[in-house]
What we know:
- Chain A is built from 18 helices and six strands.
- By secondary structure, chain A is mainly alpha-helical.
- Chain A has three domains: 23-175, no CATH class; 189-293, Cytochrome Bc1 Complex, Chain D, domain 2 (Orthogonal Bundle), CATH 1.10.760; 338-442, Cytochrome Bc1 Complex, Chain D, domain 2 (Orthogonal Bundle).
- Chain B is α+β, with helices and mostly antiparallel strands.
- Chain B folds into two domains: 2-75, Roll (Ubiquitin-like (UB roll)); 84-157, [2Fe-2S]-binding domain (DNA polymerase, domain 1, Orthogonal Bundle), CATH 1.10.150.
- A five-stranded mixed β-sheet of chain B has the order 2-1-5-3-4, with helices on both faces.
- Chain A: It comes from Ancylobacter tetraedralis.
Amino acid sequence: MAIRRVVFILVLLSVAALAAALVYAWHGAIAPINPPAASSFDRASIERGATLALIGDCRTCHTAPGGKTLAGGLAMPTPFGTIYSTNITPDPQTGIGLWSLEAFSRAMREGLDREGRHLYPAFPYDHFSLTTDEDLKALYAFLMSRDPVVAEAPPNELPFPINIRLVLAGWKLLFFHPEPYAPAPARDAAWNRGRYLVEGLAHCGACHTPRNLMGAEIRSEEFAGGEAEGWTAFPLGRHSAARIPWTEAALNQYLRQGWQADHGVALGPMQPVVENLADAPADDVAAMAHYLASLGAPDGISPQATAAPPDASGQRPQSAGWQAAVSAPAAGESEGRLVFAAACASCHDSHRSLPLGGVDLALSTTLAAEAPRNLLNIILLGVPASDGHVAPIMPNFAASMNDAAMTALLGYLRQDVASKPAWPELPDAIAAARRAAAPSTKAGAAR
Amino acid sequence: MTTLTVNGIGRTVSSTPDTPLLYVLRDELELNGAKFGCGLGQCGACAVLVDGEPVFSCITPVMLLEGRDIRTLEGLGTAEAPGPLQAAFIEEQTAQCGYCIAGMIMRAQALLERIPHPGDDDILTALEPQLCRCGTHMRIVRAVRRAAQNMARASEAGR
């Protein structure tokens, strides 16, 4: 009898807990609206929204390769499965045409769609929730004044139980605690603006902060480095592996032009970010650099002066001679050194400054990084020409270098050029990078 | 001494192992199809095939190529008996100065071996790394399309 009563109470408690969870998880729909005419938004608002959308990288995720801008459908690989970005043009059926400003703001702040369904945090509402009312209004004006595109995103490919959106209520309960942006009064306006953008719309931490097993950013390890689409997102600030500490000027230059001679080139998922920032307002990017510089540098690292490349008239090497000349290695040198001399030196030892020459590999963060993945990606994919932006390029070596040559080259670069201990388990890393690179090299590495 | 397989024939070359393949092809083996353009792997004039994949021979040292299958323009046909791509490039009169054409043909060859019936998007994507200063791109794309059609017709007829 007693056991039956205990079981009954337990069942009752579970039902109550489930009901409470459902109440927490349940959100109502926001009434649909007639899609507003583009002319109903003022021009200043739309323009402001356009720049905020660049900083937020909206088009980067919400545009499929070869697809219409902002019409969604990009496959986003996550450790849990593939999520497809949605259409955020104002098409009433397949886009956000029926969304009021209230519905849009709720999506950005609470991660819910107009109908009240939980959105996957691949949409970084854990950052976007900081966005001010005024900025949300401008973003809304920008998006709703785009040409509507009819495009249905493919269904997500997620396993049970993650494919049940209600599960996200639990995820949010554990990991999502939005608070409005609170400026720090002790800091200047640029710092506050920079922090607002870096932590909010620009969602830097979405890649540069490590995530836990449930895919949430580990806030206590902010900017300690993360991973995105098979690339390492390098640690920032005091976690940085940079050989020369980042300065505010260097950060600003890197974010605006996509490369910085003392550090390297923005590649992989960072490439579209800098392409967006190139067109964003200069003072916003400068504010982001100002804030990021305030995150500090690792202890014990000291700025070192780099020798300026010969740039004065008559000193710049004339192209033909330098293109043909490779630094001849002496007999008996390591295979890695030989490969470098013959395949890499004509750019990386050219003493031509970026973007016309190669990155000074002794300073490259990629060579100083904990894992060889980014270096392998660069060797296998090359650096395709960037549309409309002056940027360094590099051919790929996927077909010409076999694994043994690549192992030798990486050994030389890591130990002799970067003076760091050898990367462990190189053959596995090479195999993994080759597997990931294969589809895109087959389709032509150039996008 | 390095042993290379070029167009199906074993060749022993005396250049040092770090010598770029392009110099070995042109200076030692007298195969002058591949051209020196930029010397930086940026223009594609030097493209040849290694195990079926296009590579820039100007930045590929021969030490990487032992035991691998190297193919150059000369391996596709001769002036008297041009291969299907070479014939199509002649028929479409693709060459203005002609300097880029050998590389274009080699990369197109790799494409057609992988995708026998390429769409225009495939052709444009595949040839993107190859630069032509004269601006003959439209003719080049037509030539690749024509070669694909001719090859399809030839294989139909051979059935």
